[in-house]
Specification:
Length: 384
């Protein structure tokens, strides 16, 4: 995913951190820290236990504890997504990565929507793991007095364990709402897909998700007297997130259904205009203007050696282009596909690598090229 930094690997799955994650942690820390007194009383009431707030409310501790609780919540999100990924691997699905984002996490897999019998345990694994993690933290609240005799330190530990536990139980309940892109929406689709085609099941589940999004939006805008104040930004953002997620999921499955049996050989553009590695870069820019194509394969002696795109050209200054050749800026590691490859695979590669075109090779010879535009055109024609 663009804008993500790889921070490690667990069980062979790359763990990524999106830049938005770094923005939301300080926000959560501030919100938690600014309400530390009321939250301490709430946690004490929920667990029926007294909390010594001597350390909790002193100096910078509210903001430090806010940061710890925020990190604890996102650790719970990570464990949630890891559970999805491990169940998927057991079912034979290869996972690309786990990415932590502003509003949670995403476990990315190599294929589209799995079979219902596979999707159901995958979807349930995450929320159930959040529930177990939350209950474990809640259990530690009652164990804490045995860990340390100091009441003030007990208060800090009870606050952290109690808050993280409650948040993860809320995460469990929220994710089971039957609304895409949350796990409850996937559970609903898996149940529906046992009785109808996958695309229809997805469309119904996505519409249910949009209904919940509209409900969240109305409550966020107008509030609930005595419970939720009007213009709640958090609920409004959740409404947008759910609505867009439901729309994207529905569109993705529609693409899979429409393009399921189409190969790149059936829709590739041919003949292919290629450029030599020694061509002046300014001439390539002129070709882009003339042809309206924003990328060309680069060949030497009829052998593909690279790709040159508008993005490659834009990485150079206009003054330097006069003296540069294609080989100075071209991408040398080119993704290629055979004519028998599916269009779904091509689209997945384009999305994962953020590229706009893939050369089609047969016996090491370029026989065509497939672009995102080609795929969109074929999809529109398939709708007829």
């Amino acid at each position: 995913m663009d804008g993500s930094l790889r921070i490690g690997r667990l069980f062979g799955i790359p763990i990524m951190l999106h830049w938005t994650f770094l923005l939301i942690i300080p926000v959560f820390a501030f919100l938690i820290g600014s309400q530390i007194g009321a939250t301490t009383d709430l946690i004490g009431g929920l667990f029926g236990i007294g909390i010594d707030s001597t350390i909790i409310s002193g100096g910078y501790m509210p903001w430090i504890l806010g940061t710890i609780v925020a990190l604890g919540l996102f650790f719970g999100v990570f464990v949630h997504e890891l559970a999805h990924s491990l169940v998927a691997r057991v079912k034979g699905i290869r996972m690309q990565s786990i990415t932590l984002l502003m509003f949670g996490g995403v476990a990315q897999m190599d294929e589209g929507a799995p079979e219902p019998r596979t999707e159901l345990p995958m979807a349930l694994a995450g929320p159930l793991t959040s529930l177990v993690f939350g209950l474990a933290c809640c259990g530690l609240v009652y164990v804490t007095p045995a860990l340390t005799p100091a009441p003030a330190i007990q208060g800090v530990l009870i606050f952290i364990f109690g808050y993280v536990g409650v948040l993860n139980i809320i995460l469990f309940a929220f994710n089971l709402i039957p609304a895409f892109p949350m796990d409850g929406g996937r559970v609903l689709r898996a149940a529906l897909a046992t009785r109808m085609p996958l695309d229809r099941a997805t469309r119904i589940a996505a519409n249910v998700g949009k209904g919940f999004a509209i409900l969240f939006g109305i409550v966020g805008l107008f509030g609930i007297p005595g419970y939720i104040a009007p213009f709640d930004p958090f609920l409004i953002l959740i409404a947008l997130f759910v609505y867009l997620g439901a729309s994207l999921e529905s569109s993705a499955v529609q693409y899979n259904v429409l393009l399921r049996d189409v190969t790149v050989g059936e829709m590739m553009s041919t003949p292919v205009v290629s450029v030599p590695a020694s061509m002046q870069l300014v001439k390539v820019v002129d070709m882009m203007y003339a042809s309206k194509h924003l990328g060309f394969p680069v060949t030497e002696r009829d052998t593909l050696v690279g790709m040159v795109t508008l993005a490659d050209v834009n990485r150079t200054s206009p003054i330097d282009r006069e003296a540069m050749q294609v080989k100075d800026v071209m991408t040398r590691e080119v993704v290629t596909l055979p004519p028998t490859a599916s269009v779904i695979d091509a689209l997945r590669i384009m999305s994962a690598r953020n590229i706009g075109r893939i050369p089609i090779l047969q016996e090491d010879r370029i026989v065509g090229i497939v672009t995102r535009t080609d795929i969109l055109k074929v999809t529109e024609l398939k709708k007829i």
